[in-house]
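Weekly modeling sync, notes
Attendees: S.R. (lead), two postdocs, one rotation student

Agenda item 3: backlog of single-chain predictions. S.R. asked that every request posted to the team notebook include the full sequence so nobody has to chase files. The rotation student volunteered to paste the first one in as an example of the format we agreed on. Action items at the bottom.

Example entry:
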Amino acid sequence: MTSAFLKSAMGFLILILFLSVTSCQHRTDLMINTVTGPIPVSKMGVTLPHEHLLFNTAMIDSIGMTHYSRDSVLRRMLPFLEELKQFKVQTFIDGTPEFMGRDPELLAELSRKSGINIITTTGWYAADKGKHLPREVKEMSPEEISQIWINEIRNGIGNTGIKPGVINIGISGSELTENDKKLVAAACLTHLETGLSIMSFTGPALGALAQLAILKKYGVATSAFIWMHAMEEQSKNRVLMVAERGAWIALDGIQPDMNASVRISGMVKYLQVIRRLDHVLLSHDATGYMIGLPNGGVIRPYTELFDSFKLLMMSEGITPQEIDMLMVKNPAEAFGVRVRKADPAK
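Predicted structure, as returned to the notebook:
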């Protein structure tokens, strides 16, 4: 009887160990699409989760390859990527939506030349009075829109074969327009089919909360949602409301302006105090090469986070381990591809 008991106990322990190991493998083996192919999230390393290498603010009808030279962009932008190597940056997420300068082949060439993983997006941008949306969007259903995005994820963008690694949408503000609601619904449908995370250029928390209500309607977990431009929210209570729902808080406005940096570092400290740093992302939202400006205009480097802002966080009591979490662990967890469904009981 003792022997049988020991065998049973040993078998149970082996099962628990097996489940533990396979669970850990599941987390570390999550994948994400880069412009040069899929990689495990364990290879993302230090990550900038929201930047731009090429950007166009013109109306959709005026955008085209004839407005810029890829060679000129390559020459101008490659040094800014190579500068990131001294800070051990391994992954750069280019948040430029379709119709605003997204050029996956250019990004692939920059990735190959720099050695940095670059991730591009699928999705549309409804802010700025919808000037970056296709005209037919009014007649399209969320299901029709999502099929366009799903096709890019499964088969590649156009005839490039390059697949996006994140769904990227932008809304108008605190009160969602019909187009906003349609894009959020399409993003939910796309996530449920593909497992890609949803980045939403949002701003104030009321807009984020309105989007989370749509996620709930479609059964998408809030952990699949990244609230971009969260630093624009003035109320810490509203930030807390979004954080408590489990969404990602992207403080993606880091810049040389000291007032802005102090305000964002104060929000980082607040999120540390309420124990939500494990759901925070940091980036610059630097616009890169601006189509239509001579030589791309003035390019803001992607290094402020690693220079003065990192020191500012440390002066606020953010530990090196927490900084590593913000720069490495959190992006891997936020962007790792898997379907996240909401708990019906909540």
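Discussion: group reviewed the output briefly. The CA atoms of residues 69 and 176 lie 37 Å apart.
Action items: rotation student to repeat for the remaining queue; S.R. to check formatting next week.
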